[in-house]
Amino acid sequence: NAGVTQTPKFRVLKTGQSMTLLCAQDMNHEYMYWYRQDPGMGLRLIHYSVGEGTTAKGEVPDGYNVSRLKKQNFLLGLESAAPSQTSVYFCASSYMQGGQDFGPGTRLTVT
Amino acid sequence: ILNVEQSPQSLHVQEGDSTNFTCSFPSSNFYALHWYRWETAKSPEALFVMTLNGDEKKKGRISATLNTKEGYSYLYIKGSQPEDSATYLCALNAGGTSYGKLTFGQGTILTVHP
What are the chain B neighbours of A37 within 8 Å (beta carbons)? Predict the structure, then answer.
């Protein structure tokens, strides 16, 4: 099993550009999550999904959109990137409310 | 917003020392308490998921206890090794309509010196 994978690993965007981060898991997990990690702020939940076709807002959802069209994929979109969105993004998945399996992270810089 | 606090923020110990850290959370909002280990340049790795008051879990030299009535959990490492150096995160699942949502603490950074 590949576990949780994230694409891309690194990305540099200019302010105003858009991009999509892809998360894929092969563990048949129902629940998937997107977090951002910033120095001194810990891990903060952006959006999450409890099943295919469902999404919900987390703690810091503004400026992001998500989609879960297939059970194994969870996409995070930035429509108009801002420097404040410079961060490391982690995707995670879990079987129901069990321990979460994390992806390797995507380092995003917005200039 | 739930307040999950961890102490200490950082800890330096010598190889072979035993150590412990604390995670505090609001006892009125509880479904499960998670512990994760996060090594530098890697992803968080789940250690334990604890749900019952008085729960005690063990994985090798690492163990954890849970007190839901007073709102705290302890993580213990017996005979610390340099490879135990990592950030240890706890996270609260408040249950109800929060589903699997976790609120993370800031973490305890452990450094084990050879």
Answer: none
Instruction: Determine the Cα–Cα distance for residues A93 and A43; give it in Å rounded to an integer.
Output: 15
Q: How confident is the model at residue A16 (pLDDT cuts 50, 70, 90)?
A: very high
CB pair distance less than 8 Å for B102 and A100: yes
Out of A44, A99, A105, the one facing B46 most closely (by C-beta) is A99
Query: Which of B6, B48, B104 to mutate to probe the A interface, most A CBs <10 Å?
Result: B104
The CA distance from B58 to B39, in Å, is: 19
Q: Are A105 and A87 in contact (CB under 8 A)?
A: no
C-alpha dihedral, B88 to B103 to A74 to A19, nearest 10°: -90
Q: Which of A71, A24, A63, A22 is nearest to A46 (CA)?
A: A63
CB A88 within 8 A of CB A34: no
A84 DSSP assignment: G
Cβ neighbours for A96, distance < 8 A, ≥ 6 positions apart: A30, A31, B100
**pLDDT attached to residue B28:** 86
Is some CB atom of chain B closer than 8 A to the CB atom of A103? yes
CA distances from B83 to B13, B29, B111, B112 (A): 12, 34, 9, 8
pLDDT tens digit sequence for A20-64? 999 999 999 999 999 999 988 889 999 999 999 999 999 999 999
In degrees and rounded to multiples of 5, residue B97 shows phi and psi of -85, 5
